[in-house]
Protein backbone atom coordinates (compact mmCIF):
# COMPACT_ATOMS: atom_id res chain seq x y z
CA UNK A 1 0.00 0.00 0.00
CA UNK A 2 3.10 2.20 -0.07
CA UNK A 3 2.23 3.71 -3.45
CA UNK A 4 -1.20 4.83 -2.31
CA UNK A 5 0.13 6.48 0.84
CA UNK A 6 2.90 8.38 -0.99
CA UNK A 7 0.35 9.66 -3.45
CA UNK A 8 -1.95 10.81 -0.65
CA UNK A 9 0.73 12.87 1.07
CA UNK A 10 1.25 14.88 -2.12
CA UNK A 11 -2.40 15.54 -2.84
CA UNK A 12 -3.98 16.01 0.58
CA UNK A 13 -3.71 19.62 1.54
CA UNK A 14 -6.85 21.44 2.61
CA UNK A 15 -8.08 22.27 6.03
CA UNK A 16 -11.63 23.40 5.43
CA UNK A 17 -14.58 21.53 6.96
CA UNK A 18 -16.74 19.82 4.32
CA UNK A 19 -19.17 17.99 6.59
CA UNK A 20 -19.49 18.39 10.35
CA UNK A 21 -21.51 16.64 13.00
CA UNK A 22 -22.00 18.58 16.18
CA UNK A 23 -23.17 16.90 19.39
CA UNK A 24 -25.30 14.26 17.63
CA UNK A 25 -27.46 12.01 19.81
CA UNK A 26 -30.03 9.49 18.63
CA UNK A 27 -32.24 6.84 20.19
CA UNK A 28 -34.39 4.15 18.62
CA UNK A 29 -37.45 3.37 20.77
CA UNK A 30 -35.80 4.87 23.89
CA UNK A 31 -32.63 2.81 23.29
CA UNK A 32 -29.81 5.29 22.89
CA UNK A 33 -27.47 4.46 20.00
CA UNK A 34 -25.38 7.63 19.61
CA UNK A 35 -24.47 10.03 22.41
CA UNK A 36 -22.94 13.45 21.77
CA UNK A 37 -20.98 12.57 18.63
CA UNK A 38 -18.96 15.41 17.10
CA UNK A 39 -16.86 14.98 14.00
CA UNK A 40 -15.43 17.26 11.34
CA UNK A 41 -14.24 15.99 7.95
CA UNK A 42 -12.14 18.34 5.86
CA UNK A 43 -12.16 18.90 2.11
CA UNK A 44 -9.87 16.38 0.47
CA UNK A 45 -9.91 14.07 3.47
CA UNK A 46 -10.62 10.36 3.67
CA UNK A 47 -12.01 9.42 7.08
CA UNK A 48 -12.44 5.84 8.23
CA UNK A 49 -15.17 4.87 10.67
CA UNK A 50 -14.59 1.73 12.69
CA UNK A 51 -16.46 0.05 15.48
CA UNK A 52 -18.05 -3.24 16.52
CA UNK A 53 -21.27 -4.52 14.92
CA UNK A 54 -24.36 -2.61 15.94
CA UNK A 55 -22.55 0.38 17.34
CA UNK A 56 -24.24 2.92 15.06
CA UNK A 57 -21.93 3.44 12.05
CA UNK A 58 -24.67 2.99 9.43
CA UNK A 59 -26.98 5.08 11.60
CA UNK A 60 -24.41 7.87 11.53
CA UNK A 61 -24.29 7.65 7.72
CA UNK A 62 -28.07 7.87 7.59
CA UNK A 63 -27.91 11.05 9.68
CA UNK A 64 -25.29 12.51 7.30
CA UNK A 65 -27.33 11.81 4.15
CA UNK A 66 -30.57 13.04 5.72
CA UNK A 67 -32.42 9.75 6.01
CA UNK A 68 -32.55 10.10 9.80
CA UNK A 69 -32.90 13.21 11.92
CA UNK A 70 -30.91 13.23 15.18
CA UNK A 71 -32.75 13.79 18.47
CA UNK A 72 -30.09 16.33 19.37
CA UNK A 73 -27.26 17.96 17.51
CA UNK A 74 -26.69 19.46 14.10
CA UNK A 75 -25.22 18.57 10.73
CA UNK A 76 -23.32 21.13 8.65
CA UNK A 77 -22.11 20.97 5.05
CA UNK A 78 -19.79 23.72 3.81
CA UNK A 79 -20.55 25.46 7.14
CA UNK A 80 -24.30 25.62 6.34
CA UNK A 81 -26.68 23.84 8.67
CA UNK A 82 -28.44 21.02 6.79
CA UNK A 83 -30.04 19.13 9.71
CA UNK A 84 -33.54 19.77 8.31
CA UNK A 85 -32.63 19.52 4.64
CA UNK A 86 -34.08 16.34 3.09
CA UNK A 87 -32.07 13.56 1.49
CA UNK A 88 -32.75 14.49 -2.15
CA UNK A 89 -31.72 18.14 -1.63
CA UNK A 90 -28.52 17.07 0.13
CA UNK A 91 -27.79 14.91 -2.91
CA UNK A 92 -28.65 17.51 -5.56
CA UNK A 93 -27.44 20.72 -3.87
CA UNK A 94 -24.49 19.44 -1.84
CA UNK A 95 -23.38 16.38 -3.80
CA UNK A 96 -23.90 13.89 -0.97
CA UNK A 97 -23.93 10.28 -2.11
CA UNK A 98 -23.92 6.93 -0.38
CA UNK A 99 -22.92 3.38 -1.13
CA UNK A 100 -25.25 1.61 1.29
CA UNK A 101 -24.23 -1.41 3.34
CA UNK A 102 -26.70 -3.60 1.49
CA UNK A 103 -29.09 -3.26 -1.44
CA UNK A 104 -28.73 -0.05 -3.38
CA UNK A 105 -29.47 -1.45 -6.85
CA UNK A 106 -32.71 -2.26 -8.66
CA UNK A 107 -32.87 -6.03 -8.94
CA UNK A 108 -35.15 -6.05 -12.02
CA UNK A 109 -32.99 -3.59 -13.97
CA UNK A 110 -29.82 -4.54 -15.79
CA UNK A 111 -26.48 -3.24 -14.66
CA UNK A 112 -26.57 -0.66 -17.48
CA UNK A 113 -30.16 0.38 -16.65
CA UNK A 114 -29.25 0.80 -12.99
CA UNK A 115 -26.50 3.24 -13.94
CA UNK A 116 -28.80 4.98 -16.42
CA UNK A 117 -31.44 5.49 -13.72
CA UNK A 118 -29.04 7.79 -11.85
CA UNK A 119 -27.44 9.33 -14.94
CA UNK A 120 -30.87 10.41 -16.22
CA UNK A 121 -31.42 12.45 -13.05
CA UNK A 122 -27.94 13.98 -13.06
CA UNK A 123 -27.35 14.75 -16.76
CA UNK A 124 -29.46 16.65 -19.25
CA UNK A 125 -28.62 15.43 -22.72
CA UNK A 126 -28.60 11.92 -24.08
CA UNK A 127 -24.96 11.91 -25.16
CA UNK A 128 -23.85 12.94 -21.65
CA UNK A 129 -25.96 10.14 -20.15
CA UNK A 130 -24.51 7.54 -22.50
CA UNK A 131 -20.94 8.81 -22.00
CA UNK A 132 -21.16 8.70 -18.21
CA UNK A 133 -22.82 5.27 -18.10
CA UNK A 134 -20.19 3.83 -20.46
CA UNK A 135 -17.42 5.50 -18.49
CA UNK A 136 -18.55 3.82 -15.25
CA UNK A 137 -19.05 0.45 -16.97
CA UNK A 138 -15.48 0.59 -18.18
CA UNK A 139 -14.03 2.01 -14.92
CA UNK A 140 -15.61 -0.76 -12.84
CA UNK A 141 -15.07 -3.49 -15.45
CA UNK A 142 -18.73 -4.25 -15.87
CA UNK A 143 -18.74 -4.76 -19.67
CA UNK A 144 -19.40 -8.48 -19.48
CA UNK A 145 -22.42 -8.07 -17.19
CA UNK A 146 -23.91 -4.82 -18.42
CA UNK A 147 -27.02 -6.54 -19.82
CA UNK A 148 -27.50 -8.74 -16.74
CA UNK A 149 -30.29 -7.95 -14.28
CA UNK A 150 -29.31 -6.83 -10.79
CA UNK A 151 -30.77 -9.95 -9.19
CA UNK A 152 -28.45 -12.21 -11.19
CA UNK A 153 -25.20 -10.39 -10.38
CA UNK A 154 -22.72 -11.85 -7.91
CA UNK A 155 -22.24 -10.14 -4.53
CA UNK A 156 -19.05 -8.38 -5.64
CA UNK A 157 -20.55 -7.35 -9.00
CA UNK A 158 -23.57 -5.85 -7.20
CA UNK A 159 -21.22 -3.91 -4.96
CA UNK A 160 -19.31 -2.58 -7.97
CA UNK A 161 -22.55 -1.45 -9.68
CA UNK A 162 -23.60 0.20 -6.45
CA UNK A 163 -20.29 2.08 -6.15
CA UNK A 164 -20.48 3.11 -9.81
CA UNK A 165 -24.05 4.40 -9.25
CA UNK A 166 -22.83 6.53 -6.35
CA UNK A 167 -19.87 7.94 -8.26
CA UNK A 168 -21.64 8.67 -11.55
CA UNK A 169 -23.11 11.87 -10.11
CA UNK A 170 -19.70 13.46 -9.53
CA UNK A 171 -20.35 13.65 -5.78
CA UNK A 172 -18.62 15.95 -3.29
CA UNK A 173 -19.29 13.99 -0.12
CA UNK A 174 -18.92 10.28 -0.64
CA UNK A 175 -20.17 7.97 2.07
CA UNK A 176 -19.33 4.30 1.72
CA UNK A 177 -20.81 1.79 4.12
CA UNK A 178 -18.76 -1.41 3.87
CA UNK A 179 -17.62 -0.93 0.25
CA UNK A 180 -14.95 -3.67 0.46
CA UNK A 181 -17.38 -6.32 1.65
CA UNK A 182 -17.51 -9.14 -0.90
CA UNK A 183 -14.86 -7.70 -3.21
CA UNK A 184 -12.02 -9.88 -4.42
CA UNK A 185 -8.42 -8.84 -3.68
CA UNK A 186 -7.73 -7.09 -6.97
CA UNK A 187 -11.05 -5.27 -7.00
CA UNK A 188 -10.39 -4.15 -3.42
CA UNK A 189 -7.04 -2.74 -4.51
CA UNK A 190 -8.67 -1.04 -7.51
CA UNK A 191 -11.37 0.46 -5.34
CA UNK A 192 -8.75 1.81 -2.94
CA UNK A 193 -7.04 3.49 -5.87
CA UNK A 194 -10.35 4.81 -7.19
CA UNK A 195 -11.13 6.36 -3.81
CA UNK A 196 -7.71 7.98 -3.56
CA UNK A 197 -8.00 9.24 -7.15
CA UNK A 198 -11.38 10.82 -6.45
CA UNK A 199 -9.57 13.34 -4.26
CA UNK A 200 -6.87 13.93 -6.85
CA UNK A 201 -9.50 14.74 -9.45
CA UNK A 202 -11.28 17.18 -7.13
CA UNK A 203 -9.66 18.31 -3.91
CA UNK A 204 -12.86 19.71 -2.45
CA UNK A 205 -14.28 16.20 -2.10
CA UNK A 206 -14.27 14.18 1.05
CA UNK A 207 -14.86 10.52 1.58
CA UNK A 208 -16.14 8.78 4.71
CA UNK A 209 -15.87 5.04 4.78
CA UNK A 210 -16.91 2.39 7.23
CA UNK A 211 -15.66 -1.15 6.83
CA UNK A 212 -14.59 -4.10 8.94
CA UNK A 213 -11.72 -4.71 6.51
CA UNK A 214 -9.81 -2.39 8.82
CA UNK A 215 -6.42 -2.85 7.15
CA UNK A 216 -7.78 -2.03 3.68
CA UNK A 217 -9.64 0.95 5.09
CA UNK A 218 -6.79 2.37 7.17
CA UNK A 219 -4.39 2.03 4.21
CA UNK A 220 -6.23 4.84 2.43
CA UNK A 221 -7.54 6.86 5.41
CA UNK A 222 -6.06 10.19 6.47
CA UNK A 223 -7.74 9.82 9.82
CA UNK A 224 -10.12 7.39 11.42
CA UNK A 225 -12.40 7.10 14.42
CA UNK A 226 -13.55 4.20 16.53
CA UNK A 227 -17.08 4.25 17.89
CA UNK A 228 -18.08 2.14 20.88
CA UNK A 229 -20.68 2.42 23.61
CA UNK A 230 -22.44 5.29 21.79
CA UNK A 231 -19.35 7.52 21.73
CA UNK A 232 -16.22 8.19 19.70
CA UNK A 233 -13.66 6.43 21.89
CA UNK A 234 -10.58 7.02 19.74
CA UNK A 235 -9.54 9.15 16.79
CA UNK A 236 -6.35 9.96 14.93
CA UNK A 237 -4.18 8.94 12.02
CA UNK A 238 -4.20 5.20 11.22
CA UNK A 239 -0.82 4.70 12.92
CA UNK A 240 -2.00 6.58 16.03
CA UNK A 241 -5.27 4.70 16.13
CA UNK A 242 -3.88 1.18 16.07
CA UNK A 243 -1.80 1.84 19.19
CA UNK A 244 -4.58 3.68 21.01
CA UNK A 245 -5.55 1.67 24.12
CA UNK A 246 -9.28 2.45 23.83
CA UNK A 247 -9.30 1.41 20.17
CA UNK A 248 -7.43 -1.79 21.01
CA UNK A 249 -9.70 -2.77 23.83
CA UNK A 250 -13.00 -2.24 21.97
CA UNK A 251 -12.07 -3.07 18.38
CA UNK A 252 -8.57 -4.05 17.26
CA UNK A 253 -7.52 -6.38 20.06
CA UNK A 254 -3.86 -6.70 21.03
CA UNK A 255 -2.27 -8.29 17.97
CA UNK A 256 -3.64 -6.09 15.15
CA UNK A 257 -1.00 -4.45 12.94
CA UNK A 258 -1.35 -2.38 9.77
CA UNK A 259 2.02 -3.15 8.15
N1 LIG B 1 -34.76 1.77 12.35
C1 LIG B 1 -34.30 1.20 13.46
N2 LIG B 1 -35.12 0.92 14.49
C2 LIG B 1 -34.66 0.37 15.64
N3 LIG B 1 -33.35 0.08 15.85
C3 LIG B 1 -32.48 0.33 14.87
C4 LIG B 1 -32.91 0.90 13.61
N4 LIG B 1 -31.83 1.06 12.82
C5 LIG B 1 -30.77 0.60 13.53
N5 LIG B 1 -31.17 0.17 14.76
C6 LIG B 1 -30.30 -0.32 15.82
O1 LIG B 1 -29.27 0.64 16.02
C7 LIG B 1 -28.05 -0.01 16.31
C8 LIG B 1 -26.99 0.50 15.37
O2 LIG B 1 -27.23 -0.05 14.08
P1 LIG B 1 -26.26 0.24 12.86
O3 LIG B 1 -26.83 -0.45 11.68
O4 LIG B 1 -26.04 1.71 12.75
O5 LIG B 1 -24.91 -0.46 13.35
P2 LIG B 1 -23.51 -0.61 12.61
O6 LIG B 1 -22.48 0.00 13.49
O7 LIG B 1 -23.62 -0.09 11.23
O8 LIG B 1 -23.29 -2.19 12.61
P3 LIG B 1 -22.61 -3.17 11.52
O9 LIG B 1 -21.14 -3.12 11.74
O10 LIG B 1 -23.16 -4.51 11.87
O11 LIG B 1 -23.02 -2.73 10.16
C9 LIG B 1 -28.30 -1.51 16.25
O12 LIG B 1 -28.48 -1.99 17.57
C10 LIG B 1 -29.59 -1.63 15.45
O13 LIG B 1 -30.35 -2.72 15.86
MG1 LIG C 1 -23.52 -0.91 9.38
Describe the 3D structure.
- There is one protein chain.
- The protein is of the alpha/beta class and 259 residues long.
- It has helices at 2-11, 57-65, 87-94, 111-122, 126-139, 155-167, 185-201, 214-220, 238-241, 245-252, and strands spanning 17-28, 31-42, 46-50, 72-77, 80-81, 96-99, 173-177, 206-210, 223-228, 231-236.
- The strands form 2 sheets. The protein has a 6-stranded mixed β-sheet, sandwiched between helices. The chain has a 4-stranded antiparallel β-sheet with strand order 2-1-4-5, covered by helices on one side.
- Helix 1 runs parallel beside helix 7 (185-201).
- Bound molecules: adenosine-5'-triphosphate and magnesium ion.
- Magnesium ion binds next to helix 2.
Topology (elements, then pairings):
Layout: H1 2-11, E1 17-28, E2 31-42, E3 46-50, H2 57-65, E4 72-77, E5 80-81, H3 87-94, E6 96-99, H4 111-122, H5 126-139, H6 155-167, E7 173-177, H7 185-201, E8 206-210, H8 214-220, E9 223-228, E10 231-236, H9 238-241, H10 245-252
Parallel strand pairs: 3-8, 3-9, 6-7, 7-8
Antiparallel strand pairs: 1-2, 1-4, 4-5, 9-10
Helix pairs in contact: 1-7, 4-5, 4-6, 7-8
The structure holds adenosine-5'-triphosphate (ATP) and magnesium ion (MG).
Magnesium ion binds next to helix 2.
Question: Which features characterize this protein?
Answer:
259 residues, alpha/beta, 4-stranded antiparallel beta sheet, 24% strand, binds adenosine-5'-triphosphate, binds magnesium ion
Amino acid sequence: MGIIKKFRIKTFKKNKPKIELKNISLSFNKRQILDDISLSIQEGEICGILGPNGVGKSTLFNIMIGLLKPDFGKVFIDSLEVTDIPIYRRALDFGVCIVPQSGGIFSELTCEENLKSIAEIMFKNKSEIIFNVENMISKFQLESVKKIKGKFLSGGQKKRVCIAMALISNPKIILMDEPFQGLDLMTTRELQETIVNLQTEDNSRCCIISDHAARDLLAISDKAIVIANKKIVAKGSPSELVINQNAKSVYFGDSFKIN
